[in-house]
């Protein structure tokens, strides 16, 4: 498979969706300034509630680390060895924001930041402030835990984005010098390190740099890192034996304990049957795999992409799109093991899953990829940030109880309110960069075919003056209008996604009802007229959902979904405990949009049977049907992404089904 | 409350129950020899499967530690600082076995063991081999984790038992010298240590020594330890500051991390509202509290006993009698938090709960205490040992899946087959001593009142030639016959327990049906005739049980119970996955006794609806009621105590209730 020449390349997308405009403005107005303050240690925050804080205090020190490395400031490195990536992801988020919100003041800051980063970079292109400041003799010596290539990969992504948004050549030059440094140091040739980073990221970053520069070297290097993964299962141990075997030598405490599965390095990718290990590593690696496969046509990688995708999406994903069933190793476990209360579901893993889905759409025009992308955008990823843009979830549970989180240590990692910041602050800026770049997730163009696979209202401009204007009030309403302008009357195929949640739909083209066959989740229209008006009406009925009955945790339970939005019951709306409500399979539901609630959300009610709580004085166990009073009531549900913005209380996505 | 003069004191109980004879013979023939081999490092065992092994290998070294301390052998201490207690609990179990199975060969071993222990004991009475061998300067200096009083307490229990069983005075003398040593060292007087052990045990042990010796000093010392608990929350920290604050100084790695709640030392007992912390510590402390309260009448202690009992039994206990909802700290959590799959349910905690229940029966004649005692004997405690007597559970889950235990680290502590031994081997000998002493758990005598509160067939001889012969085929049949011989025609009140699981019963005295009022779980009969024949017929219907609906984990589920026996579904009898079966509240059940199965067990079948497993190729979530095939079938259940003696497969006590 070769890179397809996109005659119809996408030039610009303007998001007009009210839902996403609000989020994108929020990132500009609140998230970016707030995170910049935090990284400069100027914000008054508390991270003490963060169970992932790993002993970090509230000091981020991320910008200071760069200043020290640049010789502008004295001191030691502080924070995780990958602390630099907080800055890079923030920079990348800012770069995307310039595409819809140019801001000279912010650009002054980011231009200066590029200068700082360039100053911090060593002459040979190396940049990882921890090693430069406090362990220069240990560069590339403990890659299992050093995150050096992960860190530089995040800069490369940011540098490319910044260059593309602003034309700042220095930003790109820093990236290419980094990549050249890595290329000089890594590979199977004599004198190079025949290894790789414990945390994938460099693979996707280098491919992105290849796209920006068209320099084959970077694609080959990315391919090398994918091919090399798992080839030498002793690589990390051999490095550690040389670098020093004692606990004190560990760069991240405890990082030596997980086995190679955690690092996705137990065997070559082509031999790995199912994705296992640290969930974020998995999706970053998968993104790199699909990205490299797109440009190399490597069949082993393509097969692995499809194999991993299927297992992730059909067997290891929560209904909200979250992945990672255990806090131990922040990891995937195995097929259908999806506990709702002890789970992890890291925000970064959902962000990474969106990356993976986008890449898969480049490989195959399958609606399933776009379904999952949409699921992440509207649920699992978006849940990671509060409506005020200043509080964040690392862990996204599907069932939560503040008392449980406080008193049962098996659930202490589950916060029931979002935190100001994290000692390991990977998630906040990761979500910010997804939101500011969401315009890049709506279309996939291949040859003369345009896939319009998201229902996020927008105006897109392509080459040849082709313009698609999508208007709607999605996700609250399902009437999707497309106005296509094609003044040059080019022959174009337009693929419109029919989402998995809407097998029923009606399609009208220029006022005429059409009955197209759905092919892999898309209907295709030949567009050649100068103007075409299309109306797609999706099924926005409230649906009671069940899990595949191979999932123990969801057996006998229902979840509520409408369109792409998965709903949650919260104690803020429903007297606790939530598990005493039971919902019948045919329970009546209502839906209404409520402008004044949670920045405007669709609210669902579902008829439910509520058991009165039994006495706390009676015996704990008794023959069935004694002493249970039932009443007919209803549950009120709000979108999952918006939970935990009010009362700190119980929440549940899955509701008990009514028994008899 | 003063000690009541028991004119009617119990002289001897011979267990005639076939069920318990088998277990008691098993302990004599298999368990005691096997454990003796293990403690002498002569058994070929593997403890590598034990997630609690804490880095111990298969070497017990427990007897060797005593030999080194006694100067009979060179070397270092090996194992936990409380490794000695394995030997003591084994010795105590052996002592009880002599009451029903005198064995000169075994007694030669145990007499020699007493000599060894006496040789290992220091002149001042101190005995804790770890400190004697490897840290003599640190005695009593780090009581948070040293387990010194816990260790000596276990010897005191064993020494008293051995003295009472064999008349060996040396066994008792070692105990009194230990207690005197502790008395010289601990207390609020000048020059003494104003503290206590991190692990309760000494309190109940000293009270037992007081019973045996009638020396008030020991009761007062026990009372001191109870009163002092939580009085100085900084005691442990102050000791550690002096003994050395670095990790390397810790006697048990990580033992400094739990907060004072874990040690039950955050506040004085009288201020503690509910039992929290390490479950075994809780029940050992409660046993000591009830024991001391019986002899001192301390109202604060009595109140705490009732308060803790109520919370434990009505809010924190699994239907099997197990306690401890989390593996982290092997601890209780809070009311109604009873997850079935991530739980702990340590065997020792159930054994200790039986101790507590027995003590509570001395305080109040309440059937509830005997109900719980019976629940532990037939379920939660007994589950700790395999039918062959050579494999043991530390953790007793109510839901288990070998794949889950292997692939989800949150459940890695849940073994689905019993282990040969444990690095921390507290459970095996604890259960052995409960089984060999079960004859001491059947009667509670107070004044002229005899409570016969267990249905374990036996012949009991009291003072004044009074004899009660109970015959039955319990727990498989509910016809309980009592033949009372009272040749001196003394006026006696006989309390017969009506168990909580059998509100319906029939009572016949000398052939005449009687309708007595049940008072707190007992019916009382005035016995003065020379012979009385009593027939009690209990309700042995199979019952579908539900939990109080405040328990999230059991909502929408039923458990099956018959008499005191809680049942479990195993993959050995039912094709997995077990969660795909659903049981209606009115499901038909059958019961039959099967001699050839699991050493003879009652087997229950229950009608169930089985969903066919959905395809693993389809989407994970779909609208309800699509693609589910149901079939009518039945589940076969076996007693919980007998699970995991066949196929290593799934097990579940709680079954999904049928929904509509």
TrEMBL record, chains A, B:
- Keywords tagged on the record: Hydrolase
Single GO BP term: carbohydrate metabolic process
Please tell me whether the keyword Hydrolase is annotated for this protein.
yes
Non-reducing end beta-L-arabinofuranosidase-like GH127 C-terminal domain sequence ranges: 542-656
Q: Would the keyword Signal turn up in this protein's UniProt record?
A: no
- Which Pfam family, an example, fits this chain? Glyco_hydro127M
Stretches that traverse the bilayer = none
Please name the SUPFAM superfamilies in this protein's record: Six-hairpin glycosidases (SSF48208)
Where do the Non-reducing end beta-L-arabinofuranosidase-like GH127 catalytic domain residues begin and end?
12-439
User: Non-reducing end beta-L-arabinofuranosidase-like GH127 middle domain location, by residue?
Assistant: 449-540
Q: Which GO terms describe its molecular function?
A: hydrolase activity
Give the source's domain of life in one word: Bacteria
* PANTHER family (UniProt xref): DUF1680 DOMAIN PROTEIN (AFU_ORTHOLOGUE AFUA_1G08910)
Q: What is this protein called?
A: Glycoside hydrolase family 127 protein
Q: Which organism is it from?
A: Candidatus Levilactobacillus faecigallinarum
What lineage, starting at the top, does this entry show?
A: Bacteria, Bacillati, Bacillota, Bacilli, Lactobacillales
């Amino acid at each position: 498979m070769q890179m397809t020449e996109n005659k119809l390349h996408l030039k610009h997308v303007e998001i007009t969706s009210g839902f996403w405009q609000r989020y994108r403005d929020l990132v500009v107005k609140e998230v970016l300034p707030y995170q910049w303050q935090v990284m400069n240690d100027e914000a008054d925050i508390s991270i003490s509630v963060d169970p992932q804080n790993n002993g970090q205090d509230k000091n981020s020190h991320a910008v200071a680390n760069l200043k020290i490395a640049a010789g502008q400031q004295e001191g030691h490195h502080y924070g995780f060895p990958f602390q630099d990536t907080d800055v890079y992801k923030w920079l990348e988020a800012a770069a995307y924001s310039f595409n819809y919100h140019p801001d000279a003041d912010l650009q002054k800051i980011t231009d200066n930041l590029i200068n700082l980063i360039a100053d911090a970079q060593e002459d040979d292109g190396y940049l990882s402030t921890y090693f430069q400041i406090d362990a220069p003799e240990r560069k590339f010596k403990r890659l299992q835990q050093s995150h050096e290539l992960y860190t530089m990969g995040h800069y490369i992504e940011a540098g490319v984005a910044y260059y593309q948004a602003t034309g700042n050549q220095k930003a790109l030059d820093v990236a290419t010098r980094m990549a050249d440094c890595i290329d000089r140091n890594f590979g199977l040739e004599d004198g190079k390190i025949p290894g790789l980073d414990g945390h994938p990221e460099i693979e996707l970053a280098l491919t992105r740099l290849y796209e920006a520069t068209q320099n084959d070297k970077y694609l080959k290097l990315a391919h090398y890192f994918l091919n090399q993964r798992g080839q030498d299962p002793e690589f990390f141990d051999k490095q550690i034996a040389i670098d020093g075997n004692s606990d004190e030598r560990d760069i991240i405490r405890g990082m030596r304990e997980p086995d190679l599965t955690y690092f996705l390095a137990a065997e070559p990718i082509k031999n790995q049957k199912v994705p296992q290990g640290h969930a974020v590593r998995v999706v970053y690696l998968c993104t790199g795999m699909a990205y490299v496969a797109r440009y190399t046509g490597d069949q082993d990688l393509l097969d692995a992409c499809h194999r991993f995708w299927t297992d992730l999406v059909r067997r290891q994903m929560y209904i909200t799109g979250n992945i990672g069933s255990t806090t131990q190793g922040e990891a995937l476990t195995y097929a259908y093991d999806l506990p709702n209360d002890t789970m992890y579901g890291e925000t970064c893993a959902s962000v990474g899953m969106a990356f993976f889905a986008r890449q898969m759409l480049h490989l195959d025009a399958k609606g399933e990829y776009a379904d999952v992308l949409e699921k992440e955008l509207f649920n699992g990823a978006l849940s990671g940030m509060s409506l005020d843009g200043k509080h964040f979830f690392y862990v996204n549970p599907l069932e939560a109880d503040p008392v449980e989180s406080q008193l049962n240590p098996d659930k202490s990692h589950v916060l029931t309110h979002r935190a100001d910041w994290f000692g390991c602050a990977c998630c906040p800026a990761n979500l910010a960069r997804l939101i500011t770049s969401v315009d890049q997730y709506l279309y996939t163009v291949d040859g003369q075919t345009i896939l319009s696979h998201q229902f996020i209202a927008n105006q897109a401009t392509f080459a040849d003056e082709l313009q698609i204007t999508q208007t709607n009030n999605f996700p609250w309403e399902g009437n999707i209008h497309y106005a296509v302008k094609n003044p040059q009357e080019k022959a174009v195929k337009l693929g419109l996604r029919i989402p998995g949640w809407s097998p029923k739909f009606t399609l009208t083209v220029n006022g005429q009802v059409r009955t197209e066959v759905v092919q892999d989740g898309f209907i295709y229209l030949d567009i050649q007229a100068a103007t075409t008006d299309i109306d797609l009406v999706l099924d926005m009925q409230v649906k009671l959902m069940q899990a595949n009955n191979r999932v123990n945790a969801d057996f006998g339970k229902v979840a509520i979904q409408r369109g792409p939005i998965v709903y949650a019951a919260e104690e803020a709306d429903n007297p606790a405990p939530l598990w005493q409500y039971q919902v019948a399979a045919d329970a009546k539901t209502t839906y209404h949009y409520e402008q004044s609630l949670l920045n405007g959300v669709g609210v669902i009610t579902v008829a439910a049977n509520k058991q009165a709580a039994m006495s706390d004085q009676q015996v704990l166990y008794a023959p069935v049907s004694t002493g249970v009073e039932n009443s007919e009531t209803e549950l009120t549900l709000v979108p999952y992404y918006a939970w935990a913005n009010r009362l700190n209380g119980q929440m549940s996505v899955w509701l008990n089904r009514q028994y008899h």
